[in-house]
Specification:
Blueprint (H helix, E strand, L loop, with lengths): L18 H10 L11 H14 L4 E5 L2 H11 L5 E6 L3 H4 L4 H6 L2 E5 L8 H5 L12 E8 L10 H13 L3 E6 L2 H8 L14 E5 L9 E5 L8 H7 L8 H10 L4 H20 L6 E2 L7 E5 L2 H10 L3 E4 L4 E5 L6 H16 L1
Parallel strand pairs: 2-3, 2-4, 4-5, 5-6
Antiparallel strand pairs: 1-7, 6-7, 8-9, 9-11, 10-11
């Protein structure tokens, strides 16, 4: 059990709720509002999302990131289809087989060094079209940021969307850390989603200060014609939706999403600065958002985890992942670095 008196570096899911988002929930908790999304909070939130992503979209709120990813894939596939993703993708590693269970689609995973798919890597799996003995590739799914903390450029995303569309396929983006990617790229959300050919997006905020809730965005409205039935049947239609909507409204107003993500990314760079020149530590990925991957001496992992909890990414080579959050402080970084140096001297 980790020492809960210290902020750890395990996940930005472990952070609390931003005070402004708690305030938004509290303000929405007045009187009655029509359930299931027919309320003023949801209407305003959808309009704000359209300002960020484009007017010609359809927006649906759901409870969880796994739900958003599974429903995204469900909306654009049949059971005989295949979804191509990186072998580190959240839909493959961290959703307990939910995408395969509920969509019945086969996941085709591709090894990568940095969590990013490339057209060349994907092309070799684009085969068997029209042949009834093979699954039919239908979706390329990418994460932005990736599970390795790296960030796709608009050019890289466009190349994958062009490839997908050439083969009558779709490009899905898992945007659990979309705000961190936007800050890293110094771009607006639309610049690397709608404008690069993404077809459907799972847009999350729980890793950046929200309590719960995800928005599922269709950039091709024709794909969403029957989605309201899919959402209901999949048990992701929230009755008191205003409490998700109110958060997104506050999150996307006055650039709160940007302030939170900018801080998290800056804290990762500060942590990198503290550890990158230590001879016993090897940084394994480019630090482009709020994640640091490093190989560290095996004997310090357990005591370091007890004081500042984090996850071991690859036990076979003592590779760990350190995540920073919107509420990580410079003092957290200093304390962690000091204790790390102390353990290395023992």
């Amino acid at each position: 059990m980790n020492n809960i008196s210290n902020r750890g570096f395990a996940s930005d899911n472990n952070s609390g709720i931003h005070p402004l988002l708690l305030e938004a929930i509290n303000k929405a908790n007045v009187g009655h509002a029509i359930a299931y999304g027919d309320d003023e909070y949801t209407s305003r939130s959808v309009n704000i999302i359209k300002k960020h992503f484009g007017n010609k979209i359809e927006v649906f709120f759901v409870l969880t990131g796994t739900g958003a990813n599974v429903l995204s894939i469900s909306a654009i596939t049949q059971s005989y289809n295949a979804v191509i993703c990186a072998e580190t993708a959240h839909i493959h590693c961290d959703e307990c087989g939910a995408p395969e269970k509920f969509t019945n689609c086969k996941l085709i995973t591709i090894p990568t060094s940095d969590g990013k798919l490339t057209p060349d890597a994907v092309k070799k799996h684009l085969k068997g079209f029209g042949f009834e003995h093979h699954v039919q590739p239908k979706v390329i799914s990418i994460s932005q940021t990736t599970e390795m903390g790296t960030v796709y450029t608009p050019f890289e995303i466009r190349a994958l969307s062009v490839l997908a569309h050439e083969h009558n396929m779709y490009l899905h983006m898992d945007g659990a850390r979309l705000a961190n990617a936007a800050v890293s790229l110094n771009l607006g959300f639309k610049d690397f989603t709608a404008n690069t050919g993404v077809d459907i997006l799972s847009f999350g905020g729980t890793k950046n200060g929200m309590l719960f809730g995800e928005s599922l965005i269709f950039f091709r409205p024709e794909l969403a014609i029957n989605f309201k039935y899919v959402r209901k049947q999949s048990m992701q239609l929230v009755s008191k939706m205003r409490f998700i909507s109110a958060q997104f409204e506050s999150y996307l107003t006055n650039k709160l999403w940007y302030v939170n993500a900018l801080h998290a990314n800056k804290m990762a760079l500060l942590l990198l600065k503290k550890v990158k020149d230590i001879p016993q530590i090897q940084i394994t990925q480019n630090v482009q958002a709020n994640a640091i991957f490093a190989i560290i001496p095996q004997h310090i992992i357990e005591p370091l985890m007890k004081k500042y909890f984090f996850y071991v990414w690859d036990e076979s080579r003592n590779e760990v992942r350190w995540m920073t959050s919107f509420d990580t402080t410079p003092e957290d970084i200093d304390g962690f670095a000091e204790y790390l140096h102390l353990l290395l001297k023992q």
